Amino acid sequence: MDVQDPDTQTSRVFTIPNILSMARLLGVPVFLWLVLSPVFDGPNRDGWALLVLVLSGVSDYLDGKLARRWNQVSDLGRILDPAADRLYILSTLVGLTWREILPWWVTALLLAREAMMAVTVFVLDRRGYAPLQVNYVGKAATLNLMYGFPLLLLSDGHGLLASLAAIFGWAFVGWGTALYWWAGVLYVVQVRRILKADATAD
C-alpha cells in the first residue's frame, strides 16, 4: 500500500482491504497443504494450489487499490499486506523446492535477501523507527515472483503448455529475484541515510 495523508487514514481494523489481506494470510497454510500433497503420497492438487496463488495475487492488487480509493489505508493494513506477500513467497519457496521444481540456490538467494531485510528492520526497531514503506521496486519484484511461481508449478508436467510455462516462469522468477535484491539494497541505503542523519542530529 502507498503512503497516504494521515488525515485520510483509518484506525479501523475490519475494513474490506484488511479483510482481503487477512484472507490471503489464511490461504498460506492451505496452499502449502495443496502443493505438498504429492510429496506425502497424496493426490496431485496442483490445480487447486494454482487457484490459491491466483486468488492471492488478485486480492493483493485489490486490497491496495480499494484502500486508496475508499480512504481505508491503515497502519494494520500496511503491516498485513507485505507480511502476506512475504509469507506467500516463503511458502512457495518451501513447496517448490521440496518438490524439486525450484533449485535450492534460487531459494537460498531469496532467503538471504529476507535475512538481510530482517536484520535491517531489527536495527530500525532498536533505534525506535518503524519499518519503512515497501518501495515500488519491491512491489514489482513481488509481482514478478507471484507470476513466476505459479508458472513454474504449472511447468511440472509434460507437453507444450508445461514447456511454455517453464520459459515464462523462469523469466518472471529471474527478473523477480533481481528486483527483489535491488529493492533490498535500496531499503538498506535508505535506512543507512536515516541512521546517519539521526547520528548527525545527536
Please explain how this structure is put together:
By secondary structure, the chain is an all-alpha fold. It has a single domain (6-201), classed as CDP-alcohol phosphotransferase transmembrane (TM) domain (Four Helix Bundle (Hemerythrin (Met), subunit A)). It has six helices and no strands. It has helices spanning 16-35, 46-69, 75-98, 104-126, 136-154, 160-201. It starts with 15 loop residues before the first helix and ends with a helix.
Question: Can you lay out the helices and strands and say which pair or pack?
Answer:
Layout: H1 16-35, H2 46-69, H3 75-98, H4 104-126, H5 136-154, H6 160-201
Give the structure's gist in a few sentences.
Helices cover 75% and strands 0% of the residues.
Q: What are the salient characteristics of this protein?
A:
75% helix; Four Helix Bundle (Hemerythrin (Met), subunit A); globular; lipid metabolism; mainly alpha
Percent of residues in beta strands: under 5%
Largest sheet: none
The top level CATH class name? Mainly Alpha
Number of discrete helical segments: 6
**CATH topological fold name:** Four Helix Bundle (Hemerythrin (Met), subunit A)
Q: What oligomeric state best describes the polypeptide chains here?
A: single chain
Subcellular location: Membrane
GO molecular function: CDP-diacylglycerol-glycerol-3-phosphate 3-phosphatidyltransferase activity
Membrane topology: Multi-pass membrane protein
InterPro entries: CDP-alcohol_PTase-I, CDP-OH_P_trans, CDP-OH_PTrfase_TM_dom, CDP_ALCOHOL_P_TRANSF_CS, Phosphatidylglycerol_P_synth
